[in-house]
Amino acid sequence: MTDDLTTDYLEAGFNRRLGFGRSPALIVVDFCKAYLVEDSPLYAGVEGALASTMRVLEASRQAGIPRIFTEVQYEPGGADGGVFYRKVGALASFDRGNPLAELPPELARLPGEVMVTKQYASAFFGTSLAATLTSQGVDTLIVTGVSTSGCVRATALDACQYGFVPIVVSDAVGDRDQRVHDANLFDLDAKYADVVTEAEALTYLDGLSTRSSS
After folding, report:
1. 144 φ, ψ to 5°?
2. Given Cys at both, which of 31, 58, 62, 175 links 147, Cβ 3.0 to 4.6 Å?
């Protein structure tokens, strides 16, 4: 074991690159007002991640790849939220009808963009997401949204376990604490996903746009 953490992981066989596949889709995980309104219990100061997600979303639209959004929604009181709802009191922000659960206007969906409604951290758990991606021949899932340590991580992990290459865009995901954000990106990149910058994601998507228009 070396003193440098990255070197230690590399020498142990972690951090291999998976690379972008041939048929990607974009997922915007739970980017709702609850994380952006300052008096919300879930406010996370992720305005920079929102701006990055907007740019990646626009590039994905230009590239013509599938775009999927997720939302969390519970019956008032959380009867369908199970242990997760009991554990995290702030999830009451997602009770049906609460405006904090809404998408911000900057991320308004266009026709044909899918919304997946979920009750738990992973966008795959208890939803039709895997079937939707498989039916469209998707092999790569570009992941944006919030929070890095919660629903982003769980979704990227399950993408890996369902056989989709997870590409987590570091600038387009966020968390309420930078230390938690950084630690989870490190672990995802080591074991389950490729963590890339916004610039890398945009270069890839721009290449898809060029090919589709030629």
Report:
1. -130, 170
2. 175
Q: Say which amino acid occupies 129.
A: L
Looking only at the bridges linking them, the beta strands covering 24-29 and 67-72 are: parallel
DSSP per residue over 1-63, as a string?
--SSHHHHHHHHT--------SSEEEEEES--GGGTSTTSTT----HHHHHHHHHHHHHHHHH
Which residue in the list 56, 72, 138, 151 is annotated as catalytic?
151
- Report the residue count for the chain: 214
C-alpha radius of gyration, the chain, whole number: 17
Mean pLDDT of the chain: 96
Is the CB of residue 116 less than 8 Å from the CB of residue 145?
Answer: no
Give helix 178-191 / helix 153-161 axis angle, nearest 10°: 10
d(CA 84, CA 80): 10
Contact by Cβ (8 Å): 1, 115:
no
Q: Please report, as a single letter, which amino acid is at residue 35.
A: Y
- Note if 151 is an active site residue: yes
Domain 20-213 has CATH 3.90.1300.10: no
Domain boundaries, the chain: 20-213
Q: What is the pTM of this model?
A: 0.95
| Tens-digit pLDDT profile for residues 63-109 | 999 999 999 999 999 999 999 999 999 999 999 999 999 999 999 99
Unique residue bearing structure tokens 């009750």:
119
How many other CB atoms are there within 10 angstroms of residue 171's CB atom? 20
- pLDDT at residue number 210: 74
